[in-house]
Amino acid sequence: LNKDIATPLRTKEILEKYGFESKKSLGQNFLIDLNILHNIVRAAAITNETGVIEVGPGIGALTEQLAKQAKKVVSFEIDQRLLPVLEDTLSSYQNIDIVHSDVLKVDLHRYIAEHFQDVNDVMVVANLPYYVTTPILMKLLEEKLPIRGIVVMIQAEVADRIAAKPGTKDYGALSIAAQYFAKAEKVMTVPGSVFIPQPRVDSAVLRLTVREKPPVELIDEAFFFRVFHASFANRRKTLLNNLTHNLLSKAEKEIIEDVLIDIQIDPRRRGETLSLEEFALLSNALYKRVM
Ligand code: SAM
Question: Which of 77, 108, 267, 276 meets the CB 3.0–4.6 Å disulfide criterion with 240?
Answer without folding.
Answer: 267
